[in-house]
Amino acid sequence: MRIALYQPDIAGNVGAILRTAACLGLGVDLIEPMGFAWSDKALARAGMDYVGAVDVVRHADWETFAAGVRGRIVLLTTKGAVRLHAAQFRADDLLLMGSEGAGVPEAVHDRADLRVVIPMRPGMRSMNISVSAAIVASEALRQTGGWPD
After folding, report:
1. Under a CB-based contact definition with an 8 Å cutoff, are residues 143 and 88 in contact?
2. How far is Cα of residue 77 from the mean position of the Cα atoms in its chain?
3. d(CA 140, CA 18)
4. What spatial distance separates the first Cα and last Cα of the chain, rounded to whole Å?
5. From edge to edge, which strands make up the β-sheet containing 56-59?
6. What SS3 class is residue 78?
7. Which domains does the chain have, with CATH numbers?
8. How many C-beta atoms lie closer than 10 Å to residue 105's C-beta?
9. Cα angle 79-82-85, degrees, rounded to a multiple of 5
10. Cis ω before 105 (30° cut-off from 0)
11. Distance (Å, rounded) from C-alpha 76 to C-alpha 95?
């Protein structure tokens, strides 16, 4: 199982996701362009020394990423068709999240094999991307028996 970030905007969120991925034993795919320089100090501050413990793959663009996908693309979206508790995850899923400011374009949305929404109180737009990644990864790992020992 891997986490994929589509054109992320905020280095601190990416750093927090890398730290979560390191602790859970998940790889991370970064689909460029990103809204910050990879060497940004904010990335290192949020990711701390965990960044080196993650299998990070950077992709030049969506097409490059999509060409190498093995398994399903599970898009986390506020426009999701399946509520998190009803989603059925697989061990080889790619948990994809869009950029903080724009999400993903329709072509990426349409390419997803499964679209999942985290249920929230009425009137709330969305959660922080790093929090969403942790919530969905936790449920996916629970279902697939993928929690680290």
Report:
1. yes
2. 11
3. 17
4. 16
5. 56-59, 27-31, 2-6, 94-97, 73-76, 114-117, 82-83
6. coil
7. 2-144 (3.40.1280.10)
8. 13
9. 125
10. no
11. 7
pLDDT in tens, 90-121: 999 999 999 998 999 999 999 999 999 999 99
As a whole number of angstroms, the distance between CA 13 and CA 30 comes to: 12
- 12 band by pLDDT with thresholds 50, 70 and 90: confident
Identify the residue whose tokens are 């950077």: 58
Return phi, psi of residue 91, to 5°. -65, -25
Q: How many CB atoms lie within 10 A of CB 61?
A: 11
**Closest to 22 (Cα-Cα) out of 143, 137, 144:** 137
Distances from the Cα of 8 to the Cα of 51, 58, 149, angstroms: 16, 12, 30
Q: Which residues contact 68 (CB under 8 A, 6 or more apart)?
A: 59
- What global pTM score does this model have? 0.93
Residue 49's Cβ-side half-sphere holds a number of Cα atoms within 13 Å equal to 0
Note the pLDDT of residue 40: 54
Pairing between strand 82-83 and 114-117? parallel
- Nearest to 53, CA basis, from 89, 28, 80, 78: 28
H or E element at residue 67: helix 62-67
What does the alpha-carbon distance between residue 64 and residue 130 come to, in Å, rounded to a whole number? 24
